[in-house]
Amino acid sequence: MNYKSPRRPQFFYTTAPLPCPYVAGRTERKVVTEITGPDAETVHDRLSRAGFRRSHNIAYAPVCPSCHACVPIRIPVATFQPDRTLRKIGKANAGLEGYEVPARATAEQFQLFQAYQKIRHGDGDMASMSFYDYRAMVEDTPIETFIGEFRDADDRLISACLTDRLGDGLSAVYSFFLPGLERRSLGTYAILWLIERARALGLPYVYLGYWVAESRKMAYKARFRPSEILMGGSWRVLTEGEITGSADAEVLTPQTAG
């Protein structure tokens, strides 16, 4: 007679309040759980569909009592249609070659990562990361993960995107690029590349994490249309009215944040 080993219970914990990294004047709390063991892929898939994100072997989601600004967002590959701006970004980077490489940290990647952090997030915690910290970010993963590397005609690495592969899509974990090339929108181009990669792999979605309409550095995710957002436990199409209304509300943010 065959016996199945009992499934290990999944424990969830809530973090202490910390300053919100997206909306000034607010605090954030997260619910976190560990992803380990033989069921790691299955657990991560289920949590991703429920709006969780991954960092190392931890999955997390915001649980801020008085704020719901962080909205999980994903792109349905089959119906995605780039607008004029996205098409221009694609053409501007037509000379780049994208490669899917194993999640193994390299000195070349770390040099690019350091340059990006110094210019874009010089006052953040990630700016002081050592190579060993970076290697942990890349390699400490319990699931299938890869890096999208983007190289120019001289084989110079100018952009990279750490990516998780899910049962139903690709999840963009973290991207970074060479400072001074902001006009090429390399972060946006990496997402366009992931959409095409997901299509080639027969995967229906690209997960982008959280859409935060009140944060300029996170609001861009609504540019990929149609997009789907997780609201009330169900994924549905993000409407034009919600995007426009959120953009209007952003003007009031400095007065209403709290």
Give your account of this protein's structure.
The chain is α+β, with helices and mostly antiparallel strands and 258 residues long. The protein folds into two domains: 13-62, no CATH class; 71-256, Aminopeptidase. Helices cover 30% and strands 28% of the residues. It is built from eight helices and 14 strands. It has helices at residues 40-49, 84-92, 107-120, 131-139, 186-201, 216-219, 240-250, 253-256; strands at residues 13-14, 18-19, 27-28, 30-34, 53-55, 58-62, 71-76, 97-102, 145-151, 157-166, 169-177, 205-211, 228-231, 234-237. An eight-stranded mixed sheet has the order 8-9-10-11-12-7-13-14, sandwiched between helices. It has a four-stranded antiparallel sheet with strand order 1-4-6-5, covered by helices on one side. The radius of gyration is 19 Å and the shape is globular. It starts with 12 loop residues before the first strand and ends with a helix.
